[in-house]
Every structure is written in C-alpha cells, then in structure tokens.
Amino acid sequence: MPHLRGFDAWIEVGGFRLEEYRVEVIQDGSRVSCWVPCIPGKEFEVRCYIPPEQLHASNHLLAIRLDGEVAFVKGNGTRQNASAEYGSILRFAEQINKKDMSTTRAFKFGSLELTDDDSYLLRTTKQFGEIAIEVYSFEGLHVTPDQDLQRMPTVSDEYRAHERAKKGLSHCVKLGEEKPITTILPPLLSVGSKKRICTFVFNYRHLDLLIANGIAPRSTLSRYEPATSHFAGKREVDELHVGLTGAGMGYNQMKDGSVPVDMKDRLQYLKAQIAMLKMEGR
After folding, report:
1. Mean per-residue pLDDT of the chain
2. How many angstroms separate the Cα of 109 from the Cα of each of 3, 12, 183, 216?
3. What angle do CA 151, 153, 159 make, to 5 degrees?
4. Taking every annotated instance into account, which residue ranges of this chain make up the domain DUF7918 (predicted)?
5. Is 192 inside any structural domain?
6. How many domains is the chain built from?
7. Is 80 exceeded by the pLDDT of residue 15?
8. Lowest-pLDDT range, 34-48, 126-140, 151-165?
9. Domain limits for position 197
10. Which of 80, 118, 152, 231 is surrounded by the fewest CB atoms within 10 Å?
11. Which are the contacts of 30, defined by CB distance < 8 A and separation ≥ 6?
C-alpha cells in the first residue's frame, strides 16, 4: 500500500483497486514506488487521498504524470481548510483537450509499438511503464491568461519506442476517444510558489511479466478472468485493501473539499491505517 506522510494513492480499473507489489520508500521518505499489473485495453483512474491534517496545513496541488508526461487535468488542487473534519479524495480519469477545452480523453492501458528504426535511439522518448503522482503545497493563485494555455503540459499521442531501448516493455498509457464535456469548466488557475511534498510512482507491467519476474505471486492469476483480463467477481482482499478500497470508491466531495463518509466506511479506513502501522512496526 503506497502510503507517505499521511497521503495515500492508488490506481483503479473498473471500480477495483489494482494490487501493489514491492512497495518501497526511497529518497529520504519523500518518494514511494511499487509495481502494479496493467490490464490492456482497459480505462483506469488515478486517485489520491489527502488527510485532514494536511488540509489544515496548506493548499495542495497534484501533478499526474503518465509515462513521464504531465496530464492536463481538472480538479487537481485543494484549498487550505482549517476546519476540515475528513480527508479529501481526488480522482483523475481523463485529460482535457486544451485545443478547444470542450472534450476529454480517458486514460487507458494500451500496447506499446516497438520499432527497429535506430533514429528512435537518439530521441527523448516517454518514460514508458510509469505512472506518477506528485504532491505539492502551494501559495498564491491566479487565473491563467489565454496566451499561456497552449504552453501548459499535456500527454502526447506518442506510443512508439525502440525495441532495444525499452526491453521488457510491451504496454503504455494511451488516451481514448474524444468525449464532449457536459459541464461548464471553471477558469483555469495557476499557482504561485510551490514545494514538493512527496511522489508516488506506479511501475506497471503485464501481470504475466510481474509473475515471471517474481514480483507478483502466481496466486494472483486466480483474481483475473483470462479471456477478458477483468477481476474475477468480487475480489477477496485483506484488511489493508478493504480499508483503502472503501475509502477510495463511491464518495462525492463536498464544496469545502471534505469527503462525507458513514461510520462503517470510516471504521474500515481506520482499521486499514492501524494494520499498516503494525506492519511498519510503530
């Protein structure tokens, strides 16, 4: 379970949290990495939980990196809220088309095109096989001028790499078909100064490769339907997963950024936190 400084992050496919393997905290406790299975052809969501004590302390901004490129997303910030009773869960499932700001494209796992064209060895390509969430605190907020909009980062439609440069990789993150935005987008805001708090990195590979490399146990195969690569029915999960999967699904954020939860869900989340602390030996 990627957990760092009170923050939690995870990836969901079809409403289920992907299991994480070999969770490792590095770089003085400011960065955590893990491995997750990718499900080719399936859309996914990236989610991050900001605890109430962090909401009390400062504003927060999240940058979502897909294969090394920052996605152009909405709702990736929270304002400081000294009275927040619960944490806030931010979810990201699509990129906004900044050319017209009227359509979005869903995040999905797809096939990476490998080539023997040596010109690709000299190119700066994406960091295929990696999804990252960068968490920042920030000060200052202003409306982004129209002339600055086109300079904002975005995920490109480049899905090709040299076969020798990306050994062991066969998949990447792609963007789905354009879908119209049915709600009015608020003005695009830019922050003043910002400071990175922590980073979550999800290294994704096909499940067969994770098992072959000893990263995921072979028993994991029983949780998928081979024909569709779906989770097989309702997934059996341990106490840690029950808590965070419950905390990451089905909640609507309130206007103040807090997340209303009933006592049962809150209890599940607290049990998950206690179990995690026991694992860390606290």
Report:
1. 77
2. 24, 12, 26, 19
3. 125
4. 7-219
5. yes
6. 1
7. yes
8. 151-165
9. 3-223
10. 118
11. 4, 196, 197, 198, 199
Instruction: Tell me: pLDDT of 239 over 70.
Output: no
Phi, psi of 242 (to 5 degrees): -60, -45
What is the rounded distance in angstroms from the CA atom of residue 189 to the CA atom of residue 201? 26
Read off the pTM. 0.76
Q: Quote the DSSP letter at residue 43.
A: B
Six-digit token string for 66: 């897909």
Going by pLDDT thresholds of 50, 70 and 90, the confidence category of residue 270 is: low
Q: Is 68 part of a structural domain of the chain?
A: yes
- Answer whether 104's CB lies under 8 Å from 96's CB: yes
Look-up of token digits 């990196």 = 65
Measured between alpha carbons, how far apart are the two ends of the chain, in Å?
Answer: 16
| Residue 91 domain flag | yes
Cβ partners under 8 Å of residue 132, min gap 6: 64, 65, 199, 200, 201, 202
| Alpha-carbon 272 to chain mean position | 20
For residue 184, count other CB atoms closer than 10 A to its CB: 5
Asked whether residue 244 is assigned to any structural domain, the reply reads: no
Q: Pick the closest to residue 116 from 172, 67, 165, 159 (CA basis).
A: 165
pLDDT, residue 257, reads: 39
Secondary structure percentages of the chain, helix, strand, coil, to 5: 20, 40, 40
* Stronger pLDDT, 142 or 226, i.e. the higher one: 142
